[in-house]
Description:
This protein is mainly β.
Amino acid sequence: MTKLMLLSLLSTASLLAETSQESNVSKPKSSDIPSRLEEGYGSDELLSETMPYIPDVTTQERIKFYGDLRLRSQSIVSEDANKPGQENVFRYRARIGMDAAINDQTKFEFVLASGEGDPVSTNQSAGDSFVGKNIVIDVADVFYEYDYHSFVRAGKMKLPFYRTHKNQMLWDNDLRPEGAFVKHKLFEDTDITAGAFMMRNASETESKKAVGLYTVQAIQHFEKFRVGASANIYDTLKGETPNVSYNSGSGSLSPKDLSKGNSLDSNGHYENNYHLLELFAEYKVTDNFGLGIDTIYNVGASDKNYAYNISAMYGDLKENGDFKMGYYYRYTEKDAVLGMFSDSDFMGGETDSKGHQLMAGYQLAKNTQFAVTYINGVQQMSSEPEHFQRLHLDVKFKF
């Protein structure tokens, strides 16, 4: 099924390319097209908007190298019986990558990152007697742009989905799905996207079925307003065991730990399917201030299946001395999203939670940012509520 979906996406892109000459999109002259980074495409700045990433490399450059290092002081205060009291950790994340221009329309991306194979984190914690840390393949994909802001991407890729004010209620920022994805600019202000991804291959020895993720998203852009909807369908998850194999050998974590708050039966299997319908809207009040809302409803579960995120963003991070502030209020019921792939920081990465998240960033110098994130809320809100606090102090360097 998944292979057929992947082939279908690629053939659809070919047909779209053939018909692009008849599209209702008015294509600007090359001299009138602004930098993609200026448009927000490809930008990875703190708290920035997230549009589908487009490799910023030309055939004249051929290959472009880039990378970043984030140093983090992390403090967590939790009432969790398994992790009581306060935890203070120094963590870091390092990534280095390259974009290569195969031709004017086709690009190749490759990124290596620190990490243990966790699907939603490439952080490493200091300590453990100075032992060496692992490196993983973070991104390896091919990008083909068949029309202005219309493209196909295949491989292991950066998140290709639009998210209101970069909120991570549905997808963690570090998630790298594997499969194929098509984005098509249907009209001047309308984007349609579709993707098919392989989450897990079948295994007869472990009695596991193949699990795929199929997504469709539509976005309508107005002058100061943006609305959209998406459907994100995981097939055959009900009755399956949560599974992640970490490079560090910690794949023996219990199904309860891996489920990240989702409902499991007495055998440690998912009780529900995850067929997620999403509606979102974003309003630009002024050039520097915006409001947003994102709602999710899991039709694969009959109870505890609703989530929402309210956001507000002010400021920008471009020039030295710039600052930006953000706020989320998030409410996520137990089976509203697949916990394995949602925000790994908010409430310890658990669903069945609610709370506040405050963020602030300051541009210290060129390619250097300082950021503070504070999270305060409740875990296990439907059963035995536990207070949770998290503080991050980050310094990020980019090149």
